[in-house]
Structures are given as C-alpha cells and as structure tokens.
Design brief:
- The chain is about 45% helix and about 20% strand.
- With about 230 residues, the chain is an alpha+beta fold.
- The chain folds into two domains: about 60 residues; about 150 residues, VC0802-like, CATH 3.30.2130.
- Strands 2-3-1-4-6-5 form a six-stranded antiparallel beta sheet.
- Helix 3 packs across helix 4 and helix 5 crosses helix 9.
Length: about 230
C-alpha cells in the first residue's frame, strides 16, 4: 500500500517560518511583534490564504516561546569569541571528480608534515580548495590544469574562534553573516569547522570585515558584562 505523503498544516508551516527567521523569533519572545503584520507576511511568502489560521498559529507559538531570548544565547557565544586574520590566501575551484580528491592526497600528506592548513569543500558541481597562496602552484599541479575551473588570489581568511557551546547554539553563523551583509561586505567563501567560523573576503575588504566582526564581539561583551536585571535596556 502506497504511503500518503504528510501535508504540513498551517500551524506547522507558520512555526517553520518563524524558526527560520531568528530575528522574528526573538521579537516574539520580547513581545515586540504585531501579529497581524506578521500573519500577512507569512501568508504572502508561504502562499497561505487563511489569515485567521496563521494568526492563531502565531499566538499559540508565542505562548510556547515564553520569555526565552535566543538572541542572548547567540551574543553570549559571540562575546566569548575572538577574531584572527590570515592574509595571502587563494582559492582553487576544480571539477568535482574522484580523481581530483585522489590527486590531492599527496599535497595533504605534505601539509600534515609541515603543519600547514588547507580546507577542501566538496559540492555537487565543484571542489573548492582554500590554501596559502604559496601553495597555489602545487595545488594546481596536483589537481591538473585540465580540472581547474577557476583560481582566485589576493584573498584574506578571517576566522571567528568561538567556545565549544557554539556547536549547540543555532543562529550564530546567521548573525555574523547578516552583520557582514549589512556592512556591504561580499563574502567570497565561508567554512564552518567545529568551533571556527571562517570567512574569505577580498584583500581590500579585510579592514572593514575585521572591524564589523570585532564590533559584534565588543557589543556582545558589553551586554554580557551587564547584570541580568539591566540587560533589557540594551
């Protein structure tokens, strides 16, 4: 017998929408949301016709959220993070082929012995290799010029190193990316590895990116240093 696919209810779609927008979720927790406006926005973006059903779902979900302030959890992680910068980075984009990964094995072996760092990201269409510029020739040679799709140079790696609790705290990455985007920064590549959140930007954007991320940490530190009963004024 063929199993019938579960169709999401209006309430489920509403909760999923709120969960995917941390800023809205935090405003609901702080009782700063106009539910009529929120319901209309959800209807428009989710293609839902029943406004009353969305309104009820929003209000019910607000009760379950209570006074939980997710933004403070995010700021707590960021406030205990540090920023590190590494210049002269290059990115080699190659075809997504098993032979490319196999050819990179010798480079990896050498890097491990030299304690150097190289990140490899395998996507559906391509393999991205982030490395020190001095390794560019070696990486291209190992991959094979016929497999190279693109080479980018004059890049900077900015790493936000956070405490281990980041692995259990959702929204930190989104918060940092949003801050960079609001500052008009174009992120060339981004990698998340355990407690490190890594942003690759153009060399000319290095100072601005560093400044934005540093201010995020400074603001979070300032909020964390304030007694709990006074934090609502921030």
């Amino acid at each position: 017998m063929k199993k019938t696919k579960h169709k999401e209810s209006v309430a489920e779609r509403t909760r999923a929408y709120i969960d995917s927008h941390p800023s809205i979720k935090d405003c609901i927790s702080k009782d700063l949301i106009n539910f009529s406006s929120l319901a209309r926005l959800i209807m428009k973006e989710e293609g839902i016709k029943n406004e009353e059903a969305v309104m009820i779902a929003c209000r019910r979900y607000a009760l379950t959220l209570g006074k939980h302030d997710h933004e403070r959890e995010i700021l707590s992680v960021i406030g205990n993070s540090r920023v590190e910068v590494k210049t002269k980075i290059c990115i080699v984009t190659a075809k997504n082929d098993w032979t490319v990964l196999q050819r990179l094995e010798s480079v990896f072996r050498k890097l491990i012995n030299e304690k150097a760092i190289m990140q490899v990201i395998q996507g559906t269409q391509a393999i991205t290799i982030i490395a020190d510029e001095k390794l560019k020739g070696e990486v291209v040679a190992a991959v094979g010029k016929e497999n190279v799709l693109k080479v980018r140079q004059n890049l900077v790696e900015i790493s936000v190193k956070s405490p281990e609790v980041i692995t259990e705290t959702s929204g930190v990455f989104a918060y940092l990316v949003s801050s960079l985007a609001e500052g008009g920064l174009n992120i060339v590549e981004t990698v998340s590895c355990y407690t490190d959140t890594i942003f690759i930007v153009a060399e000319e954007d290095m100072i601005r990116a560093y400044s934005i991320l540093s201010k995020c940490i400074e603001r979070a530190e300032a909020i964390e240093s304030v007694p709990e009963e006074e934090k609502d004024s921030f």
